[in-house]
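hey so u asked for the seq, here:
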Amino acid sequence: MTLTREKPAVEPASKARLRLWLRLLRVTREVEGALREKLRVEHGTTLPRFDVMSALSRNPDGLKMSELSGVLRVSNGNVTGIIERLVEEGHVTRSAVDGDRRAFSVRLTDKGRAEFARQAAEHEAWIDAALSAISAEDAGEITWRLGALTKREG
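ran it, structure tokens below
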């Protein structure tokens, strides 16, 4: 697949940006839908479980449940059920936090790290294939430009 579409005629900046936003949403939904299906079929897991394991992989010393919720930008309730299942499967350990009897820290087990590494490698390959029409240079440029949007105030 190659990107050979002609550029549209000059239009107001607001219309061009609206069109970009709608295209970003469509691409994101399509890629995310494919990822969800691949994770379900090939790994028997879900995207939220993958996201939890990814966050724990980046924090090998573990995270408090509240920290994990903050990293994922979801409620504690959303994370609790996922953690329960990952603990049952032996992918995550949960331990009390010293000095706070209501808080728990969670971390990946060796089994969890190995499973996440396997899933993450396939995830990267799936994304690479889904976005293969974009060169590495263009991907870097787009990433940089979109990153500039996240640094704005308000």
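DSSP finds six helices and three strands in the chain. Helices lie at 13-43, 47-57, 65-72, 76-88, 110-130, 136-150.
lmk if thats what u needed
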